[in-house]
Amino acid sequence: MAAMLPALERARSFDALFSGTPVILAPMEDVSDQVYRALCRTVGADLCVTEFVNVEGLLRGCRKARQKLSLSPDDRPTAIQIYGSDPARLAEAALVAEGAEPTFIDINCGCWVPKIARRGAGAGWLRDPDAMVAMAKMVVERVSLPVTVKTRIGYGPESHMPIVDLARRLEDVGVRALTIHCRTANMGHSGAADWAWAARARAVVSIPVIVNGDVTSASEAERALAETGCAGVMVGRRAIDHPWVFREIRARIDSGLTLAEPSSEERIELCRALLVARVAQRGEARGVTSTRRHLGGFVSGLMGAAALRRELFDCPTLEGCLAILDRFEMRLAA
Q1: Three-state SS for 169?
Q2: pTM (2 decimals)?
Q3: Is the Cβ–Cβ distance between 82 and 105 less than 8 Å?
Q4: How far apart are CA 52 and CA 299, in angstroms?
Q5: CATH 1.10.1200 domain span(s) along the chain
Q6: Helix/strand/coil for 213
Q7: Which of 35, 133, 194, 247 sits 20 to 30 Å CA-CA off 43?
Q8: At 190, phi and psi to the nearest 5?
């Protein structure tokens, strides 16, 4: 079991993750499930983070929360991300999560959604940096796996950004890496991410810092790394529509190459693969509907993509969707 490995071996394994500038799939609710993690790995994701796991649901034995802890043998390396507002409950949930043998445990201190943050979870921790550091210390001391934190640069207003001091203090209590979404909680997804804050935080710590926010292409990832000196990049919303971004970033930072756009055949095949896998995982109704947020982006740029999207979004069955894709592919080949 990963949790039972000698401490030195675990430390070396964790450090090795950041030796090659990993390109990471962000934790996203109803996106970064086991199926989508597997798909993103096929197109270049080096490391994945699970959907947000609510600690109260997990400790109550909620089926959905428990399912999020399920990691198959080939679902590696993957971190489990937990969120909650009670330090003791977070520490207890981290211990439960450790039993699933993730690569490490990540604490969500960055979710800005009001129903989460107003209750003190997610980015709500940024309202009280002292409490956030004490909470992180409690979690670190409870488990044997590495613990990381994903956070924003501050809660707001923009004139007050605690992230630099927080980074230093989190390292002091044993946090092993820090992912920084370079917006405030109040900004949500609006405005531009200011990567300079990731650079400032990275300059005061020795642990890996991962830059997140507006990493939407290979060129943007290259620029973010150059401007911040960070150990890796995390991709969120762009991965929903264009998972090929992982291999495009990997090629750019490894070899300076600009890859061609995925072919129409590859785009359609990825639609098929996601539909089949999600239906197998969730059943037909939920499996088909849960793919719709992805399929429009997957076929973006193809001739007739708008009509294809409408057909797919109106179709409730797997068989029907696959037939639509088959007909579309035949028209492209004609």
Answers
A1: helix
A2: 0.94
A3: yes
A4: 28
A5: 264-333
A6: coil
A7: 194
A8: -85, 160
Q: Which residues are designated catalytic? A: 111
Query: Around Cβ 206, how many Cβ atoms within 10 Å?
Result: 7
Helix (H), strand (E) counts: the chain: 16, 8
Give CA torsion, residues 203, 181, 176, 68, to 10 deg: -170
| Of 267, 272, 269, the residue nearest 303 (C-alpha) | 267
Looking at the chain, how many residues does it have? Answer: 334
Contact 230, 4 (CB under 8 A): no
Local confidence pLDDT in tens for the 334 residues of the chain? 444 455 555 556 888 999 899 999 999 999 999 999 999 999 999 999 999 999 999 999 999 999 999 999 999 999 999 999 999 999 999 999 999 999 999 999 999 999 999 999 999 999 999 999 999 999 999 999 999 999 999 998 755 789 999 999 999 999 999 999 999 999 999 999 999 999 999 999 999 999 999 999 999 999 999 999 999 999 999 999 999 999 999 999 999 999 999 999 999 999 999 999 999 999 999 999 999 999 999 999 999 999 999 999 999 999 999 999 999 999 998 7
Q: Minimal CA–CA distance to 281: which of 64, 13, 122, 131? A: 64
**Cα 6 from Cα 257, distance rounded (Å):** 39
- What's the CATH fold of domain 264-333? 1.10.1200
Task: Say how far apart CA 254 and CA 149 lie, in whole Å.
Answer: 26
The SS3 assignment for 212 reads strand
Q: Where, residue-wise, is CATH 3.20.20.70 in the chain?
A: 2-255
The two three-digit tokens of residue 230, written as one number: 């960070």
Fold of 2-255: TIM Barrel (3.20.20)
Contact 32, 78 (CB under 8 A): no
Q: How far apart are CA 126 and CA 7, in angstroms?
A: 30
66 residue type, one letter? R
